[in-house]
Design brief:
This protein is mostly helical and 262 residues long. It has helices at 2-19, 40-49, 54-85, 91-103, 110-119, 126-132, 137-148, 152-160, 165-176, 178-193, 197-202, 211-222, 226-261. α2 (40-49) crosses α13, α3 packs across α7 and α10 (178-193) packs antiparallel against α13. The protein starts with a helix and ends with a helix. Belongs to the binding-protein-dependent transport system permease family.
């Protein structure tokens, strides 16, 4: 397992090492894992303050990713609670329809989505990009499983004491599924940050590009300069590492609880 772990880490180490080197040392063989000549300051300065708008792409990604994560988590949580703990006509049928949407490949609905968003003026806007990923069948299904684990007697007791549905949801149910919320939020953050297809299709203006499209634009404007491309790639994964380091305990707790419940 340790050997496999090291093998998986090697591409990342090469990327990090290459981002510190002058261009002439990037493709030398045997590989210099620790650069003999350091060019880190020049590489990262060119990425962040050079000809490209890398900082703008970065800010666009942070804005779109944070808003998408917040909206998607909120909607999924509300829908999951309704499907798990509320009784209304057609609930199970509606939940089955939600699950069926999860079976459809995203590529199959790109054209209808584009036509729909184009008709209401949401193409080439961050609002459209945020709405695209704000409704998740997976998030609804995942959080519903955790809400189902809450004993009904707790909710019935709260109703007897006069608590309404919103108070029960926010004061009783929500605190009991925090590990699941953290797990889904982190997954949604990673998926949105790494999303390449939707920004490529739905964004036209360069000032709206996210980091994934920005890196492609960066590589196109600078040519095949691997040291700069690796510096841009390393910069692009910093938020993912920060989010994972901060939330790893919650993710592990959420997966453990899911395993016990499963």
């Amino acid at each position: 397992m340790a050997v496999l772990g090291i093998l998986f880490l090697l591409p990342f180490v090469w990327m990090l090492s290459s981002s510190f080197k002058p261009e002439g040392d990037v493709l030398t063989y045997p590989i210099e894992w620790i650069p003999q000549t350091w060019n880190a300051v020049e590489n990262y300065r060119e990425v962040w303050f050079g000809r490209s708008s890398f900082a703008l792409y970065y800010w666009n990604s942070i804005k779109v990713t944070l808003l998408t994560t917040f909206v998607s988590t909120a909607f999924s949580c509300l829908a999951a609670y309704a499907f798990a703990k509320m009784t209304f006509k057609g609930r199970d049928l509606l939940f089955m329809l939600v699950l069926l949407t999860y079976m459809i490949p995203p590529q199959a609905i790109v054209v209808p989505q584009y036509l729909l968003f184009s008709s209401v003026g949401l193409v080439d806007s961050h609002l459209g990009l945020i709405l695209l990923n704000s409704f998740s069948a997976f998030g609804t299904f995942m959080l519903r499983q955790f809400f189902l684990s809450i004993n009904d007697s707790i909710i019935e007791s709260a109703k007897i004491d006069g608590a309404g549905e919103f108070r029960i949801f926010f004061k009783i149910a929500l605190p009991l599924v925090v590990p699941a919320l953290a797990t889904y939020s982190i997954l949604r953050f990673i998926w949105t940050w790494n999303d390449y297809q939707n920004p490529l299709i739905f964004l036209r203006s360069e000032e709206l590009y996210t980091i994934q499209i920005g890196i492609y634009q960066f590589a196109d404007s600078h040519g095949a300069i691997y040291s700069l491309m690796m510096a841009a790639a390393v910069s692009s994964i910093i938020p993912l590492l920060i989010v994972f380091i901060i939330g790893q305990k919650q993710v592990i707790d959420g997966i453990s609880l899911g395993g016990v419940k499963g």
